[in-house]
Amino acid sequence: MTDIEKLRTESEARHTFAERRHTTRYGAAVNRYLGVIGYRSDEQSAPPVQPKAVTTKTGVVLVGVDDSPISYTAVDHAAIEADLRGWDLRILHVQRPRGDRDAGASLLQRLTDRVHACAPAVPVAARLIVGSAAPLLLVEGRKADLVVVGHRHGTAGTVFGVSVGDRVAADHTGVVLVVRVPGWPPGPGFGSRPIVVGVDGDDSPAVGFAHREARVRGCDLVLLHAGKAARSGSVDTVGGVRMHRRFVAGDPATALIEASDEAAALVIGRHGPAGVPAGILGSVSRSVIKHAYCPVFLV
Fold it and tell me: Are 213 and 298 in contact (CB under 8 A)?
């Protein structure tokens, strides 16, 4: 190793260690879940701070799963959300009538063990039911405070097909987290990224949810206004959350998708203008959940 390479390695190590010491609650949870928290070197290092759950109330996170890789990622995110809030986690797998129940039970056991290993404080319940995936997930979702689905569940022939996440996002009346994270697990720094919310008005449900999510995670919040012309933004702190107002020119969907590349999550309204019927996602929502580079909360 040359002196330059050694210097670069030491610099990267110090930067990574600094990130670990100043990580957000969400970042610490992500790092712990992925098994990478706590840089160690020959020098003495302070132990990482374990984040405490911010218990807002007794709640439930429900995640729909199948045997696809994105389902494992969805469970990771669902468990982290439950861990941060001190909520319960419920894992739901829906099989067709002639499905292999032993394989389904084995899948649920693997996912439950995964959560127990990485987030032992989270109470977990797993359930296998037979029927049609989207309708049953919607019924079970009525009892949950947050529903989590993967963007694309499984391959052709599995019960959680391509359209299940879209249907749940459109029809569920509560908050849905659509997990879309190309390249998960992420590299260092993902957990310190901000929440980005698409803004129509400061009093919108999406803005209120995004502020609460940022407070729970301990991260910054970016309020993204997309319109005909860009203008100067501002930064202030509200309710303990550092808020950045950004005004950009362009289409809202394009602006949000571009912002998602540097965000931990996006928050957007589920439907378009007033009068759009239930079960139909707004054009911005449809585009964002298909192309975003991070998880998307639909509110």
Answer: no
CB 184 within 8 A of CB 100: no
Residue 277 has pLDDT above 80, yes or no: no
- Name all contacts of 36-43 with Cβ < 8 Å and 24+ positions apart: 36/188, 39/13, 41/13, 41/17
- The percent of residues in the chain predicted with pLDDT above 70, rounded, is 74
Q: Is the CB of residue 269 less than 8 Å from the CB of residue 198? A: yes
In 3D space, the residue among 219, 229, 220 whose CA is nearest the CA of residue 255 turns out to be 229
Strands (E), the chain: 60-65, 88-95, 124-130, 146-150, 176-179, 195-198, 221-227, 231-238, 241-249, 265-268, 296-298
* Each residue's pLDDT tens digit, 173-212: 899 999 987 767 676 778 889 999 999 766 689 999 999 9
pLDDT(140) > 80: yes
Domains of the chain, start order: 60-179 (3.40.50.620), 192-298 (3.40.50.620)
Q: 153 exposed, middle or buried (CB, 10 Å; 0-12, 13-18, 19+)?
A: buried
Q: Report the interhelical angle of 283-291 vs 162-171 (nearest 10°).
A: 140
| Residue 93: closest CA among 138, 63, 59, 60 | 63
DSSP state of 191: G
Q: Are 269 and 205 in contact (CB under 8 A)?
A: yes
Distance CA 284, CA 181 (A): 18
Q: How far from each other are the two terminal CA atoms of the chain, in whole angstroms?
A: 51
Amino acid at the residue 170: A
Q: Is 270 exposed, middle or buried (0-12, 13-18, 19+ CB in 10 A)?
A: buried
Token couple for 122: 């989270």
Q: Is the pTM of this model over 0.90?
A: no
